[in-house]
Amino acid sequence: MPRDTRTITPADILPLDQYELIRNDKKQEALARKKLTRIAVGPNATVLFENWDSMWLQIQEMLRIEKGGEEQLADELAAYDPMVPKGSELTCTILFEVGDPIRRDAFLRTIGGVENHIAIQIGDIVIRARPEGDTERTRASDNKASAVHFMHFDFTPEAIAAWKSGQGNAMLLIDHPNYGHAALISPESREFLARECF
């Protein structure tokens, strides 16, 4: 099965006409998956843990919307394949959401550098997030944070064993001085992500 290679290749991507035939089913699968991979951390942050299927769907949807063909496919693979967990990591997209655009802009200006204040804690093990290296996530000119962040959590064998054991609490932490929040990662989510990512 292609997803077992932990990478998405051009051969995994369906032509648009074939994708349309299964799109509704894949969207329903995604909704079910998000029940296990979506976590609210405080009032303004949503964390979406990624896997092969979520990144494959993202690429298919981008190709469907933009219809850029082979040239676009290369760009989408370069953007999204790195976010497929490679066997000893979890990856996630973090969205900072505030409905009102003026309040959102003001909020993002208070959390510059937030990408350096994100971690997963399992018992006494702390795994700091590593930002995806595609772009700077805090603007140097005014210290405004991006509303979207792509993160990796690099697990040691000890951390993987702790995650899989189901023992103790697993938490996602944001410890920025202006946005300090934590959220419990459910046992069901731990089990799903262990199966998908390690």
How many strands, what sense, and barrel or not for the largest sheet?
8 strands, antiparallel
Order of helices and strands: HEEHHEHEEEHEEH
Outline type: globular
Measured between the Cα atoms of the first and last residue, the distance is: 16 Å
Strand order of the largest sheet: 1-2-3-6-5-4-7-8
Total of DSSP H or I helical runs spanning 4+ residues? 6
Q: Specify the structural class.
A: alpha+beta
- The helix content is 25-40%
Low-confidence stretches: none
Mean of residue pLDDT?
94
How many domains in all? 1
Radius of gyration: 17 Å
Strand percentage lies at 25-35%
Number of strands: 8
Give a written overview of the molecule.
The chain is of the alpha+beta class and 198 residues long. Helices cover 39% and strands 25% of the residues. The chain has one domain (2-197). The chain has 6 helices and 8 strands. It has an 8-stranded antiparallel sheet. A hairpin with a 2-residue loop joins strand 4 (118-122) and strand 5. The two termini are 16 Å apart.
Main traits of this protein?
198 residues; alpha+beta; eight-stranded antiparallel β-sheet; 8 strands; 39% helix; 25% strand
Write the layout of secondary structure elements.
Blueprint: H1 16-37, E1 38-41, E2 45-49, H2 52-66, H3 69-80, E3 89-96, H4 101-108, E4 118-122, E5 125-131, E6 148-154, H5 157-165, E7 170-176, E8 179-185, H6 187-197
Antiparallel strand pairs: 1-2, 2-3, 3-6, 4-5, 4-7, 5-6, 7-8
Helix pairs in contact: 1-2, 2-3
